[in-house]
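Exercise: predict the fold of this chain.
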Amino acid sequence: MTRPRRSVLFMPGSNSRALKKARDLPTDGLIFDLEDAVSPDAKVAARFEVSQSVAAGGFGRREVLVRTNGLDTPWGQEDLEMVAKVRPDGIVLPKVSRQDDLAAIVSRLADLGATRDLSLWAMIETPLAVLNVQQIANQARDASIGLVGLIIGPNDIARETRLRQVAGRLPMLPALTHCIFVARAFGLDVLDGVYNNFTDLDGFAKECTQSRDLGFDGKTLIHPSQIDLCNAAFTPTSDEVAHARDILRAFALPENALKGAIQIGGQMVERLHTEMAERVVAIADAIGLG
């Protein structure tokens, strides 16, 4: 099943009011954050708030993920214990730099009794992670790992590489496109990183368009005000949906069963386009487009 992941909002685990509002936001996914968005003195309280919120449910079709602290921190082990108990849809692992990082987490979760359907998301936010992203993504071949996607962490990448975060993201593009190519090669979804200035909606909208055109499945967000613009950028247009349905109907006709290419609306369309059309239709159906 194709799951829309156009907009995925980070929410500080220490903000109980925000966690309650999350059930009504028009976002495709939520990441309850126990890591960067929570100060050290609030980590324990944030873990409790997140556990209560996830256990209570009521998030509808929204995908619920939890970003834990790393196992090399004082909070990582208890974060994993909480995740194994309350069972969100998935876990976001910060600062994954090597393929062994995933295996260590999966082993620890198994010891804690976590279910196999818990999905893993690896955050790519260090130079070593970008260099090793192919080996990290290769873990998707092992069904027991449960790796379903990559999330770009541009702020950490910029900090560690000294790349300038400028409009258009030219310095960051090689790293971004490399991660997209690797994600596609291993059948993973890949989410773009956050846009820091949530008051700059024009700049944010332009970055969403760039993100979509680069091939990302969606974008992570830091503020609810960004949701609608992000959804709009990653939602297929009515013309795109109609064209995709036309392609699928045409290739389903008996007379086209053995054809590799056919003409639709004055354009030559190859059978390889059916896979793209199927995804457009699946996303449209999942978000309720006609």
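Check your answer against the key: The two ends are 18 Å apart (CA to CA).
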